[in-house]
Specification:
By secondary structure, this protein is α+β, with helices and mostly antiparallel strands. The chain contains 3 helices and 7 strands. Helices cover about 20% and strands about 35% of the residues. The radius of gyration is 15 Å and the shape is globular.
Length: about 130
Amino acid sequence: MTMGLFFNNCAADKIILGEQSQTVLQDSKGFQMGDLVNLWIGKGSSRHMLGEARVRDISTVEIHTTYMVLDGQTLPNAIYSRDQLEPTDTEFAEACGFDGYMEMSDAIEKMYGLPTGINGAPFVGIVIKWDLVQ
């Protein structure tokens, strides 16, 4: 059985152009590396499939109010990063289809709940990265 990932309509162009190649989920929902997944846009009767993708990587993620941790490594903040080899928190957010880390953090807070203070518990989930299947 092919699994699906669901997105709002604003993500369609970014997914088709390959600008969005990953998404954050609260749990794995059974996804495994190598799985073929359908990428869906819209809701209800207006939902349609954009295409297929193959899961290339699954990582753990913690999204805190002002920073994030990917597979146990704190990603550098774009504000303080200069010529970093590893991706910054903003580059990570852009690959998820957002304009930056704060926009992604706000969206995750609305979807799943995030701490309102620095000392609160972070959002803990997974990142599904994919390659479009032509």
